[in-house]
Design brief:
Keywords: Hydrolase, Signal. Helix content is 20%, strand content 30%. The protein has 918 residues and is an alpha+beta fold. It has five domains: 4-132, Immunoglobulin-like (Sandwich); 138-341, Sandwich (Jelly Rolls), CATH 2.60.120.260; 347-459, Galactose-binding domain-like (Jelly Rolls, Sandwich); 465-810, Glycosyltransferase; 813-917, Sandwich (Maltose phosphorylase, domain 3).
Length: 918
C-alpha cells in the first residue's frame, strides 16, 4: 500500500495565517507561506489550526482527526494534551479548526500535533508544530514606556522635503544567571532595526507594517535566546521615519496625516534555568544619538548615508556612549498595541543589471532590465569624502537621460559618502524605490555592472500560482503582473512604488485582490487591510478611499469602499476565512446604512466620485477621456454596485448568523433599486443601458439586474461596442474591467476575451508589453499621457484578467458551495484561442494542477486534485466513447459522469489524472 503522509500549517484565528518555524521539525513541502512569519506572540485566544494531507494515491479523504496541544514539548511527545486533547472527531474538516482547549495565557508556549484518519484506513501523525502567545492584556504594555527624542537636530529640517536623521538607541543589561529562553516584544516607529550584541534580530526590512498609528500599532516578537549570554549584553535600535514621521512636513496638513517623531517601546523577558524571570523595558536610562551615519531617510526622497560618521560597535558591550544623550519619555502614538500577524517585508530576491552607459554630462545610466521595487546595493572604493549619488526612475527620455516628470516632487535619490580605506558595500535601511534605471554620479573611477545589485523587496509571502500558455503576449502580461503586484505589497497594498503617492487606495483592489490571490498567498495581508479600513471608518459610518487614511480622502462614493466587501468575500472564497466576514459585518452594515441615509434618492444611489476611472482616452496625450460617449453615468455605476453589495451583505448575513431581518431588508431594498435602475437607465427600444458604454451594460448584466429574456440582447450590445465601435479593443476603465473578461466568457465569447488579452495595439495590456513595459501601467497610454499620472507600476487596470487566466483558461476555480477549493470547478474554455495552458495553484488543501494541450484531433488534459478535495471537471464533448481517463475508456469505466449542454461532466476525487478527448 502506498503511504499517505501529512503536512501541517497553523492558521491564526480571525486572520487565517500560516505559521512555520525553523525550530519545528515540520516538512514545509506544499505549505502556504513557507516560513513567512515567526510564530511568536500571537494575540488571539482561539487560534485556528489547519493541515494538509499529501498522498500519492487517488481518492484520499479525511474521515476523522485528533488534535493534541501541550504546554511543553515533552508533554506533547508523551501524548499528554494538558492544554487540549480533542479526542477523535469524525470530520473531513482540515482547515480553520478552532482551538477549543484551555484558555490561553499571555506569553506562553503551545506545542501541538494532529492525527488524521482517512478512507484508506490508515492514520498519519505529524511532527510537532509550535506557536507562542503574545501580550494579551494591555496592562502588560502599560508599564512599558515609549522613549525617543521629540526634537530635531541642527542637520534636520521640517520642510516639504523633510530631513530627519535616524535615531540610534542603546542599552546594556546584565543577566546574572544561566538563560533558558528570552523573547523580545518590539514596537519601533516609524521603522526599526533591532540588535543584540551586534547581531541584527530577524531578516525583516522596513518593519513593522504600517498602520494608522493613532488607532493601532503592531509589535513584533522574536526569540532571542541564542543572541544573549550570562553577563553583560548590549541592545541597540535604529529608528527610521517610515510613515510615522511623514515625509511631507508642513505641506497640505489638511490632507496628509502626520504622527510625530520616531519612538520605540520594548520588553525583553528572560527566563533563567532556575525558572525565575526578569523583564527589561525601554526607559529613560537608554542612551540616544542622532549623530549616526543615516543623515536622512525619506520614503519619497531617498536615504543619505555618511560612512565617515559610522558608530563602530555601537550595539555591543563596552561602547563609549558618554557623549550620547539620555532618551526621554515621549507620548505614546495613541494606537492600541497589536501582535503583527502578517509578515514583514523582506529582501525576496536580487536583480543583476544588464547594462551601464556613460552620458555626455559625466554620469552613468544603469539599466536593471526590469522595473522593480526595492533598492540598489552599492560596492565602491575611493577616497574618504567621495560621494556617490544614485537617482532612480522607471524609464528614460529619448536622449537617454532619466525620465522623472512622472515622479512629481519625489526626489528618489540615495547618497553614499565614503569613509575610504578599501572596498565599501552599502545599501539603505529605511527607504524603497520603484525603478528600472539609475543615474549614477560622483562614482570614483568607472563603475561596472559588478558594482551594483538590485534588491527586490516586498512582503514575505510565497508565490503560490504559476501560469504559462501558448500565447507569448499573455505570458509576458502575467510576468508583468507578478512584478507589479509583488512590488506594491508594502505591509498594505499600495497603488504605486515610485512617485510622491504610494497610497493604499481601495479602488485599485476591488477585484484585483481576487486575481492576486492566485499568484500570492496574500490572505494575511488582506485580512490586516480589512482592519485598516475598519479603523479608518468614521463614527457615522463613512469609509475613506485610502486606508489607512494617510490622506484625508473621504469621498463617499460606492465603488472604492466596495473593496471592503469584495476583499472579505475573496478571503472566504479563496481561503475559507469566514472570520473576516463575521468580524467586519457590523462595520459593513454601518456603512451601507450611512450611504442609504445620505445618498439614496428615489431608490437610486446618487453619489459617485470617480466614474469608470481611467477609461482609455480617444487621444494618446490625454489622461482622462473627454468624449462623453466613453463616459459611464455615475449614478448607474453607484446604484448597480450598491445592489451588488446588498447581494454580498445577504451572503455575509448568512455566514455571520445575523438576524434574518437583515436579509429581508437587503432583499427588499435590492428589489426596489433594481426596478429604479432599469426604469431610469434601460433603453427598451435599443436594449442597452444609459449611453451604451460597455461598462454601463456590463454592470447590470453581471450583477443580475437585467431581465432574463433581455440578457442576450444586452450582451449583443456589449459585443458590438467592443468589436465594431472599438475595433476589438478594450474600452472599459477600472470599474468595467473588473468584470469584463469573465462576463464575455460566461456568455460564450471567450474568443473575444482572448482577443482583448492578446492584443498588442492600443489600448491593451499587450500594448504595454510591446512598448517595453515590464510591469502594469497606471494608464492604457502610460507611455504618452501627461506625466502627472502615468506611473509605470500600477495594478488597478488588471481588473479580472488574472481571475480569467486561472478560472476560465486554466480551469482552476473554487466552487461557491464548497469554498477554499474544497471542491474545484475545472472548466477551461478550450476554444478561446489558446492551444495549451500549464497552470498550478497551491490551495489551502494542497497543490492543484491543470495542464492541457490540444490540436485538431485530440485534447490531452493532465490534472492534479489535492487530497481531501474533489473536482467537477468539464470536457468539451458529449461523446463518452471519445474520452479516456487514465487510459481507460470513460463509457466502460466506473467514473461517474453526466452530460450537460455540450459537455461531459465528471466528478473526480483527489489524485492525478490524464484525460484525453478525441
Amino acid at each position: 500500500m502506498k503511504k499517505t503522509s501529512l503536512y501541517i500549517f497553523i492558521l491564526i484565528a480571525s486572520l487565517c495565517f500560516p505559521l512555520a518555524n525553523a525550530q519545528n521539525k515540520i516538512s514545509v513541502t506544499n505549505l502556504q507561506c513557507e516560513k513567512l512569519n515567526n510564530p511568536e506572540g500571537i494575540d488571539v485566544l482561539q487560534p485556528r489550526l489547519s493541515w494538509k494531507i499529501k498522498s500519492s494515491e487517488n481518492d484520499v479523504k479525511q474521515t476523522a482527526y485528533q488534535i493534541i496541544a501541550a504546554s511543553t514539548l515533552d508533554k506533547l511527545n508523551a501524548n499528554s494534551g494538558d492544554l487540549w486533547d480533542s479526542g477523535k472527531i469524525s470530520s473531513d474538516n482540515s482547515i480553520n479548526v478552532k482551538y477549543a482547549g484551555k484558555a490561553l495565557e499571555g506569553k506562553k508556549e503551545v506545542f501541538w500535533k494532529v492525527k488524521v484518519w482517512t478512507n484508506k484506513g490508515e492514520a498519519a501523525t505529524t511532527e510537532t508544530a509550535h506557536f507562542s502567545t503574545g501580550i494579551l492584556n494591555y496592562v502588560d504594555w502599560r508599564s512599558t514606556r515609549w522613549i525617543g527624542w521629540d526634537k530635531v537636530s541642527p542637520q534636520d529640517s521640517i520642510t516639504m522635503h523633510a530631513r530627519l536623521s535616524a535615531r540610534y538607541l542603546r542599552k546594556e543589561i546584565e543577566l546574572k544567571k544561566a538563560i533558558r529562553s528570552a523573547k523580545v516584544y518590539m514596537m519601533g516607529l516609524g521603522m526599526y532595526e533591532l540588535y543584540f550584541n551586534g547581531n541584527k534580530i530577524g531578516n525583516q526590512v522596513l518593519a513593522p507594517v504600517p498602520t494608522d498609528y493613532t488607532k493601532n500599532v503592531k509589535y513584533n516578537v522574536f526569540d532571542v535566546t541564542s543572541h544573549l549570554k550570562q553577563g553583560k549584553n548590549a541592545i541597540g535600535t535604529i529608528l527610521g521615519n517610515g510613515r510615522f514621521f511623514t515625509m511631507r512636513q508642513d505641506y497640505k496638513p489638511y490632507k496628509i496625516k502626520n504622527f510625530g517623531m520616531p519612538k520605540m517601546a520594548m520588553q525583553l523577558i528572560v527566563t533563567y534555568t532556575d525558572g525565575s524571570k526578569e523583564t527589561f523595558k525601554s526607559d529613560e536610562s537608554w542612551k540616544l544619538t542622532t549623530g549616526g551615519p543615516i543623515l536622512t531617510n525619506n520614503e519619497y526622497d531617498g536615504e543619505e548615508y555618511d560612512a565617515r560618521k559610522e558608530l563602530t560597535s555601537w550595539n555591543t558591550v563596552g561602547f563609549d556612549d558618554k557623549n550620547w544623550k539620555n532618551a526621554t519619555f515621549v507620548y505614546d502614538p495613541g494606537g492600541f498595541p497589536e501582535a503583527q500577524m502578517t509578515p514583514n517585508m523582506k529582501v525576496m530576491g536580487e536583480v543583476k543589471p544588464i547594462s551601464i552607459k556613460a552620458t555626455p554630462k559625466g554620469t552613468y545610466i544603469l539599466d536593471m532590465g526590469q522595473n522593480m521595487v526595492g533598492w540598489l546595493q552599492l560596492k565602491v572604493q575611493g577616497k574618504r569624502g567621495d560621494s556617490v549619488k544614485l537617482k532612480f526612475a522607471e524609464s528614460l527620455q529619448k536622449d537617454g537621460s532619466l525620465y522623472i516628470d512622472n515622479l512629481r516632487d519625489a526626489l528618489t535619490t540615495d547618497i553614499y559618502t565614503l569613509k575610504g580605506g578599501g572596498q565599501e558595500t552599502w545599501e539603505p535601511k529605511f527607504v524603497y524605490h520603484g525603478f528600472r534605471f539609475v543615474e549614477i554620479s560622483g562614482f570614483p573611477g568607472k563603475p561596472t555592472l559588478e558594482n551594483f545589485v538590485g534588491k527586490v523587496v516586498y512582503d514575505e509571502m510565497k508565490t503560490i500560482g504559476t501560469f504559462e500558455s501558448s500565447n507569448a503576449t499573455m505570458n509576458q502580461i502575467f510576468k508583468n503582473a507578478w512584478w507589479g503586484i509583488s512590488g506594491n505589497y508594502k505591509g498594505m497594498p499600495v497603488d504605486c512604488p515610485q512617485r510622491n503617492e504610494r497610497q493604499p487606495w481601495l479602488g485599485d483592489r476591488t477585484t484585483g485582490a481576487y486575481g492576486e490571490s492566485f499568484l500570492f498567498d496574500n490572505q494575511t495581508l488582506y485580512a490586516k487591510w480589512l482592519d485598516d479600513i475598519e479603523y479608518a471608518q468614521t463614527q457615522d459610518g463613512g469609509i475613506p478611499d485610502v486606508a489607512p487614511a494617510y490622506w484625508n480622502y473621504y469621498g463617499d462614493n460606492v465603488t472604492w469602499p466596495a473593496t471592503y466587501f469584495t476583499v472579505a468575500d475573496m478571503l472566504y472564497n479563496q481561503f475559507g476565512n469566514s472570520k473576516a466576514i463575521k468580524k467586519h459585518y457590523p462595520s459593513m452594515k454601518k456603512w451601507m446604512d450611512y450611504m442609504a441615509q445620505n445618498y439614496l434618492e428615489n431608490d437610486l444611489m446618487t453619489k459617485d466620485r470617480y466614474g469608470d476611472w481611467c477609461v482609455p482616452p480617444e487621444s494618446l496625450e490625454l489622461i482622462h477621456s473627454k468624449d462623453s460617449t466613453r463616459v459611464t453615468d455615475g449614478t448607474l455605476i453607484s446604484t448597480a454596485y450598491y445592489i451588488r453589495l446588498l447581494q454580498l451583505m445577504k451572503k455575509f448575513a448568512v455566514i455571520s448568523g445575523a438576524n434574518t431581518s437583515d436579509i429581508q431588508q437587503y432583499e427588499a431594498l435590492a428589489k426596489k433599486m433594481k426596478s429604479a435602475l432599469n426604469a431610469k437607465f434601460f433603453n427598451k427600444e435599443k436594449n442597452f443601458y444609459a449611453n451604451n458604454t460597455v461598462t454601463a451594460n456590463l454592470l447590470p448584466l453581471r450583477f443580475g439586474l437585467v431581465p432574463e429574456e433581455l440578457k442576450e440582447k444586452v450582451f449583443a450590445n456589449i459585443v458590438h461596442e467592443i468589436e465594431v465601435t472599438y475595433k476589438g479593443h478594450i474600452s472599459t476603465g477600472v470599474i468595467g474591467t473588473q468584470i469584463l473578461m469573465r462576463t464575455l466568457t460566461d456568455f460564450g465569447r471567450g474568443d473575444l476575451a482572448f482577443k482583448l488579452a492578446s492584443n498588442k495595439t492600443y489600448p491593451s495590456w499587450g500594448y504595454m508589453a510591446e512598448n517595453g513595459a515590464t510591469t502594469i501601467w497606471e494608464l492604457w497610454n502610460g507611455n504618452t499621457a501627461d506625466p502627472k499620472m502615468n506611473s509605470q507600476n500600477h495594478v488597478m487596470l488588471l481588473g479580472d484578467l488574472l481571475v480569467w487566466y486561472y478560472e476560465n483558461m486554466a480551469g482552476i476555480k473554487s466552487s461557491d458551495s464548497a469554498p477554499a477549493f474544497k471542491e474545484i470547478i475545472m472548466k477551461p474554455d478550450f476554444n478561446a484561442g489558446l492551444t495549451f495552458v500549464n497552470a498550478s495553484y497551491e490551495s489551502v488543501y494542497g497543490l492543484i494542477k491543470s495542464n492541457w494541450k490540444k490540436n485538431k484531433k485530440n485534447l490531452e488534459w493532465k490534472i492534479t486534485i489535492p487530497a481531501n478535495s474533489s473536482a467537477v471537471v468539464y470536457l468539451p464533448t458529449t461523446n463518452a466513447s471519445s474520452v479516456t481517463v487514465n487510459n481507460q475508456k470513460l463509457d466502460k469505466s466506473s467514473t461517474s459522469y453526466k452530460t450537460e449542454n455540450t459537455n461531459i461532466v465528471l466528478k473526480l476525487a483527489s489524485g492525478s489524472y490524464v484525460l484525453n478527448v478525441k
